[in-house]
Amino acid sequence: MKRIKTDICVIGAGSGGLSVAAGASQMGAQVVLLEGHRMGGDCLNYGCVPSKALLAAGKAAQAMREGRPFGVTPVDPEISYTAAKDHVRRAIETIEPVDSQERFEGLGVTVLREYGSFVSETEVEAGDTTISARRFVIATGSSPFVPPIDGLSEVPFWTNETIFDLRDAPEHLIVIGGGPIGLEMAQAHRRLGCRVTVVEAMEALGAEDPEIRAVVLQRLREEGVDIRETCAAEGVRQRPNGVVVETSAGPISGSHLLVAVGRVPNVERLNAEAAGIDVDRRGIKVDANLRTSNRRVHAIGDVVGGAQFTHVAGYHAGVIIRSMLFGLPARTRTDHIPHATYTDPELSQIGLTEAEARATHGDRLEVVRFPYAENDRAIAEGRTTGLIKVMVVKGRPVGVSIVGSQAGEMIGLWALVMANKLKMSAVAGTVLPYPTLGEVNKQAAGAYFSPRLFDSPWVKKFVGFIQRRIP
Ligand SMILES: Cc1cc2nc3c(=O)[nH]c(=O)nc-3n(C[C@H](O)[C@H](O)[C@H](O)COP(=O)(O)OP(=O)(O)OC[C@H]3O[C@@H](n4cnc5c(N)ncnc54)[C@H](O)[C@@H]3O)c2cc1C
Ligand SMILES: NC(=O)c1ccc[n+]([C@@H]2O[C@H](COP(=O)([O-])OP(=O)(O)OC[C@H]3O[C@@H](n4cnc5c(N)ncnc54)[C@H](O)[C@@H]3O)[C@@H](O)[C@H]2O)c1
């Protein structure tokens, strides 16, 4: 057995682990990074990057069907699913060098391509090497949850780890699960010419504001995605040319099956008990500083079971670098973390939804809305579907929900506002270029102040008073 002594040992080279390794090594710490599978983790290889690349291929196909309002004759595009997958592969390959072993070794990180497993409170074994470190970071991510549906283990099915390798278009894709993975994949495949049925046990995008998610579901249905809600998959069996999913609302036949019903934390290889690290069903248990029950060990990203996004894993990395390298107090916040679902229209959210804000703030809550249909750029581009809702308490936003074109980009402004606890006046006072979709944000702030300025008898009296006195 070889032995390595280091300052920090990071387990998992995905979004979270790579950020810790890059940050810590560039600030002078000795870092060992362990990765048992592919550098870049889920996001690069089976998650964000391939899903957004496939959605982009679908968007290109859809644009050819929707030219009529612009005087362009719509066509039913000739689609090569294989070539769309080539685009997915190229996107991954273009980003890959940034996450590669070579780049990290160039930064001075010792990279071992092995799974890590604790052997004591201060040691991890990876292949034929034992690493002892002053601090460990668990960043092992999550894997697709495969539910105990009767017959599932006997039929071929895909998850996010396999669907991007598929080269031939499925004729009729059945997606079990109407969460973000299910709906992004449903729309991408529908636009690439496949029949798609989504089977959702409860409500599709059920965690989102009902008014906001309804806009996404309506568009997907208009495009021909068959979304069945309150329809639980209870059994699956093979048929000659595909699969039948038995649901609470009857059988559904299709050619291929994608299972997208949530995630499980990657803890099984860690032997966490050997290091005194507590684990529950959601993942590694951590406190607000992302410390585990073993004070030398932090855990970040998907494996801690909170919000499972790449930017959250990156945020966690920043928080623990602060505490590990500088000994500074560093607690996580969640109120300033946005998320987006990249269907078309996109959906984004930060802070509280309207229902959550109502439950927390009661009558102090004001909700302002602004529709895309009244934004000049959206009108010019025929992208008028959508709206923004801002939940405001005492002049400060406590949540923002957006559905519409570029909603994932639009939430950025509110992320800045909420991270820095700015008021609505900061948004209203910002000058934005005309005509941009981003003005929807400012128009929402305008909708907050307009009644205060234009419907107030006091303001009218005051202005009249001043006007009579100035020359
Ligand atoms: C289809 C899909 C689409 C998504 N789209 C988005 C999106 O658009 N935006 C967004 O923000 N998020 C998105 N996500 C979520 C995002 O991918 C994850 O939140 C993110 O990858 C989590 O980062 P992580 O570092 O915690 O884990 P990962 O990136 O999964 O990395 C964990 C790494 O640890 C390795 N590992 C596991 N166990 C061990 C061990 N014992 N020893 C050594 N290595 C180990 C794994 O092989 C893996 O490489 C998507 C996810 C999926 C599945
Ligand atoms: N754009 C993004 O940022 C993005 C995109 C994709 C995934 N992700 C991340 O990945 C995570 C996992 O996504 P997901 O979509 O797999 O999970 P999810 O938990 O968000 O949704 C799964 C859905 O499956 C349904 N379901 C469960 N069992 C079922 C059954 N037997 N029959 C029918 N429906 C069933 C649930 O009711 C739920 O609505 C997300 O929470 C998110 O953190 C993010």
UniProtKB/TrEMBL annotation:
Keywords: Disulfide bond, FAD, Flavoprotein, NAD, NADP, Nucleotide-binding, Oxidoreductase, Pyruvate, Redox-active center. InterPro entries: FAD/NAD-bd_sf, FAD/NAD-binding_dom, FAD/NAD-linked_Rdtase_dimer_sf, Pyr_nuc-diS_OxRdtase, Pyr_nucl-diS_OxRdtase_dimer, Pyr_OxRdtase_I_AS. PANTHER family: MERCURIC REDUCTASE. FAD binds at residues 52, 116, 140-142, 302. Residues 337-444 form the Pyridine nucleotide-disulphide oxidoreductase dimerisation domain. This is Pyruvate/2-oxoglutarate dehydrogenase complex dihydrolipoamide dehydrogenase (E3) component. Disulfide bonds join 43-48. Pfam families: Pyr_redox_2 (PF07992), Pyr_redox_dim (PF02852). Binds 1 FAD per subunit. The keyword Ligase does not apply. It comes from Aliiruegeria haliotis. PROSITE patterns: PYRIDINE_REDOX_1.
